[in-house]
Each structure stands twice: as structure tokens, then as C-alpha cells.
Amino acid sequence: MKRALLLCVLALPVQAETLADAWRVALERNNALAAVRSQVDAAQADASAARAERWPKLSVDGSYQRFGDAPAFSFPVGGQNFLSPPLVDDNDFYSARARLELPIFTAGRISAGIESAELGARAADSASDSAVQDLKLAVASAYIDVLRAQRSLSAREAQVASLRSLVNDVTVMVEQEAVAKNDLLAAQLTLADAEQDRLHASNRLSLARAQYNRLLGEPLDRLPELAELHAAPSGAVEADSTLNALVTAAVGQRSDLASLDARTRSLDERARSARAAGWPQVSVMADYQYLENQVLDREDFSLIGVGFNWTVFDGGRIRNQAESFASAGRAAGRSRDDLRSRIELEVRQAWLDREEANARVAVTRDAVAQAEENLRVARELYSVGLTTNTVVLDAEALRQKATSNADNAGLDAVLSDIRLERATGGL
Predict the structure, then answer these.
(1) Phi, psi of 226 (to 5 degrees)
(2) What is the pLDDT of residues 344-382, one digit of tens each?
(3) What is the CATH number of the domain that holds 173?
(4) What percentage of residues in the chain have a pLDDT greater than 90?
(5) Considering the domain boundaries, does residue 297 fall inside one?
(6) Distance (Å, whole) CA 192 – CA 184
(7) How many Å apart are CA 21 and CA 42, to the nearest integer?
(8) How many domains, in total, are found in the chain?
(9) HEC string for 61-92
(10) pTM of the complete model beyond 0.85
(11) Is 82 a domain residue?
């Protein structure tokens, strides 16, 4: 009974792995994406730390000290020296302190720092979204590379099988002295070349699978069963969208462009925060201290006050640090403008590639059937001596090329749709 159940389970068809499945697994396991998401966590923690600068800061410290010989007060009184008891008992003492401090004026240093950190977190979040889309595009490319390699291998195997059949037929014809032995040599040589192409195709398939598995965090030697693709999975880009509309959409929703914009503004705010450090900094404070002694009238003291700090001269450190952030902000702004131009070019290239791929699909739609018929006719004519061996081998090569062109056109059409979705920021 158990054996019959096991056989039934094994007989069930294995569901092919879809591109949506591949994306889901890659987003969960990819280490590069996990690193980017950790950077987002770090940026958010920086923003929380910057906001905490507004809150009071409470610090506590304490110490234990021992003198070699405890000091005492000595001062003249009525012509004689008055010597107090030792300041501490047994040459050792304890001290403790609690200090509460709240900034009340920082010339904008804290507010600019908070704005800078929040913009940095926003930039990191946008960069994470861009990394997700880049990973999905890489997985899609690897997925299609596996399909392409599988089709190429199948086509090479079919070519080898056809040429072996041709070699067998020519061998019989040579034995019957119907054709020259040179025809057999030419067919065998073509078969040997086809065998080499089949081995190359098999190697390319193994490499394509390894690259695909690596992106998904799977063992490199896994043999995935992939579902065929006939259209882009999401279909976010309308087929009749104009190029100008796609460029406008890309500029508005590309997360990497938003990331650079936020980074530019973050650096500008950091420069403002650095400049503010050169202005007066005012804070209020409350302090409690405990000092063990046997001379003063008490051992604990408390006070409140206002603290004032103004760095009048620091050798240009604050000024140069602010200029450093400002220069980095200008550089990020230039990079943002350059990226916008590259995005426009990327959208244009992806759109043109899609147009070309769709046109190739239409051109190659009937080519395979025509090439198959051409090969069939050539072999029939050759078998009755109405054409030469060269015509048959040329027909075989034409069939192989037509099959390859059709496979590549269909897969390129799907990949161009996915690339266009990535270029517009909608993947």
C-alpha cells in the first residue's frame, strides 16, 4: 500500500518554476539585497539618533579614590596656623555625580542634523527599492538565459539527430555507388561540427543554470524546471505607450533618481548643521553631586544653571567640514542630473529594443516551418540524385539558423518588455 502511494506521488507532474516564483525566492534569500536592507536599517537608526539630540541627556558617573596621605586645610588664624582634620577618613573617599542637560539654542545644528538624517534614511529606502528592481531584472535575465540555453541545446540536439540520419543515408548511397565518397566525408564533417556546437550549448546551459541558482541562493548544481515565458509577467508598460510618456514616467518614479535627490538634500543639511556648530550653543543643566568628606558642612550638593559654549577659533575645522559636505552635495546633485540623462537614454534604448524584438518575432514566425520544408525537399531531391549534398547541408544550416532566430526573437521580446518596465521604474 505504501509503495503504491509512493509511486502515485512520484507520478504526479512537477509544477514548473515560474518567474514570479523566482522573484519571490530571490527577494527572500539574495545576500546582496539583504545587505542593502541592512543599510536601510542603519540609516533609520541614524535618524532616530539625530532626533534624540532634542531630548535631555542624563549622565551618571562615580569614582573611588585613595590618597597616600589625605590632605587637610591649613590657614593662619590669629597669628597661628589652623590645621583641619584630614579631608577624608582613612585616606579614601567615594564620589558620585548625576547631570541633566537640555539644549535650548544650537543655531539650527540639531534641526539640520535631524533633517539630514531623515533624508539619508529616505535615500537609503529608495536605494533599497532600486536594488529590488535591479535584482528582479537580473533574475529575469538569468531565467531567460536558461530558457535560451535550453532551446539552443534542443535545437543542436535536433540538428545532430538530423545529420546522423543524413550520414546514414549517404553511407548507404556510397555503398550503392549512387554518390561520391566526398559527400559522405562532407556530411561526417558537418556532423562533427554539430556535435561540438551541441557540447558548447550544453556547457552554456550549465553555466546559465548556475548563475540563475546563485541569484536565488540555491545550490549551483540544481536543475530547475522553468516554465516557458510568452509575455512579461507584470505587463505594467502599455504596448501603445509613447516614448515621451515613458520617459516622463521614468523620471517621476525611478527610485534611484529619488535616492540621489534625497542624498543631495541630506548633504546640504549636513553642511548647514556643521556651520551651525560654529555659533554659540546654549543649554540648561541640573547637577547633583555626592562627595564623601569630613570637613565640609555636607556631602551632597545640587545646582541648576545655564551653559554656554562658543568655539571662537578651531583652525578652520568647522568651516572646512561644512565645505566638505557642501561639495559632496554638489557632486551628488551633478550625479543626479547625469542619472536623469542616463535614464532617458535607458528608456529610449529599451523602447527601441522592444520595437525591434516585436518586429523580429513577426519576421521569424513562419521561418522555421519554411526551413523545415526546405530541408525536407532538399533531402528528397538529393535521394533521387536531383541536387547536390551541398544543398542539403545548406538547408540544414538554414533550418538551424531559423530555429535559433525564432527562439531568440521570442525571448528577446519578453526580456525587452521587462527591461522597459525596469527603465521606467515599474518593475
Answers:
(1) -100, 140
(2) 999 999 999 988 988 888 888 888 888 988 988 988 888
(3) 1.20.1600.10
(4) 45
(5) no
(6) 12
(7) 29
(8) 1
(9) EEEEEECCCCCEEEEEECCEEEEEEECCHHHE
(10) no
(11) no
